[in-house]
Structure formats: C-alpha cells, structure tokens
Amino acid sequence: MAVDTLEKAADSGSAKAVSQDSRFQRYRIRTGMFAWMAHRLSGVALVVYLVVHVWGLRALTDRAAFNELIAGYHAPIFKIGEFLLLAAVVYHALNGLRIVLIDFLGWSPNQKKLFWSLGAVAVVLIGVGGYPTIYSLVDFFFLAG
Amino acid sequence: MARAASKSNAQNWFLHRITGTFLIFMLITHFWVQHYDQQTASVSHSVLTTEQIEQGELPEYEEAAALAVKERFGEDAEVTPYDVVMLRLADPVYAVLWKAFNILFLIVALHHGFYGLNNVMADYIRNPMARKTAKVLSWSLALVLLVIGMYSVITAGW
Predict the structure, then answer these.
(1) Chain B contact residues (CB < 8 Å to A)
(2) DSSP 3-state assignment of A29?
(3) Are B110 and A72 a contacting pair at CB < 8 A?
(4) Mean per-residue pLDDT for A91-104?
C-alpha cells in the first residue's frame, strides 16, 4: 500500500500544513493504515498472551496448581481481560482473513468495503461471543448484592 | 545464498497466511470447548473475588459438567477445573485426538505468532546484529514454549 504522509498531503492542498517538529515521520491515517496498525498491535498483544498462556499451562501436570491457576483466572480483572482477548482475536482473525482474500484472490478493489463489512461481522461476533462474560461481570458488579 | 534466503522468505510469507487461516478454525474449536460447551468448558462464567480465590474457592460449573465428571471419575469425584479438563485429556478413547489437536494447535500458533513478531521486529530494529539477536532470542523462546507445551499436553492425565 502506498503511504501518504502529512507533508505530501499538504503539498497537494488537500490538508492543512503540519510542521515537522519530531524526527518521526507523521502519517495520514486512512482505513488501510488503521487496519494495518491495529493488526500489528493486536498481533503483538496476542503473542504476549500466547507466551503467558503456554507458560501457565505447565500447571496441567499438577492438579492443585492447575486448580489454583484457573481459580485465579476467574478474578474480575481476568474476566475483563478475557473479553479484550476475544476482541483482539476476532479483529486479528477477520482482518487477517481480509489480507488473505486480497493476497490470494486479488480482492483489493473491494478492500475498503471488505474492511467495513468484516468490521460489522466482528462487532456481532464480539457481542455474541462476549455476552456470557459481560453478563457475568455485570452480575458480579451490579446485580449480586 | 541470497537466492535461498529470498526463497525461504517467500515460503514463510505464504506459510504465514496458511497458518493464519488454519488458526481461525482451530481457535473456534478451542473457544467452543473451553468457554461455551457447558460440559467441557474449564473456564466457567463465575466471577470470584480476591478473598474467595485466597480461601481456595473454585469456580462453579454447569450441571452438565458436574454430571460428566461424576460419570467418568465416580460419584464422589470433585468437580474442579482440573477434572473438567481431564474429561477430554484423560479420556480412554478421545484423549489421543485432543492431545494431537493441542500439539498441532501449539505448533501452528507458535509459528504464526513468532513469525509475525519477527516481521514487526525486523521493521523497527535497524542494526543488523541486533536484528539477528532478536531473531535468535525470539525463536529460542518459541522452541522452549513448544517443548514445555508439548510436555504439559502429553503428560496431562497420564
């Protein structure tokens, strides 16, 4: 994907000029750029999660240690984390699917439409898939006396 | 040498898309059995306070899970996270399939994750020596996780 910078955009008069006061290049963030950044961020977060997850599952060989580990994962903070994990996975999977469709089937003319269509699918999946977690959190914080 | 490297890069680029596609299906299975199937979900929907966790209280499970655990491990078997997982990993018939699935899942996830991580690192680490070091360290970590993960999955319940 060709990348537009703020300076270039300013030259063509389509955006107001921005002074370059840092050594970092500043970019115009469009749909494709946003999708790419979010894909990277969620990807790195998922690798960190994968490391913690596999490392923690050493407890699988010891009944008491495993029960303690899993009980800990039922704390409110981890339940919120569980929902965020679902959101990261769903986004990364669907945007990844979009990348595969573009690379293998040449869907690039439709890529923006594809991004927003898959975005809608992602919202539904996160909503439906995360409902039990959200419900139990709402119950825990607000309903259980 | 450069030719071999570029061929390997192209293969890895292709493999990254294949592993990604496989991961979608494997993750659906993983999430289903671990979080949504009332009999096999070892992470349940109960939320525990810090005090409860410190007192050794365990999450509550659905009736379906309790029944299955008692049927498999006896009437007075406790319904704990460990026992719920062992419904699959200590099953006399299907444990081999679940273990094979988990090992394949582990290999595919580690390759996809660490290849992606190396792509990101290669973009931001300019110094060739530092880039090489990051590559060696990250793949070493992946190898350690592969060994640990395979050991945990294979020995669980056996």
Answers:
(1) 17, 20-21, 23-24, 27, 31, 35-36, 42-50, 53, 56-59, 80-82, 85, 89, 106, 109-110, 113-114, 116-117, 120, 141, 145, 148-149, 151-153, 155-156
(2) coil
(3) no
(4) 91
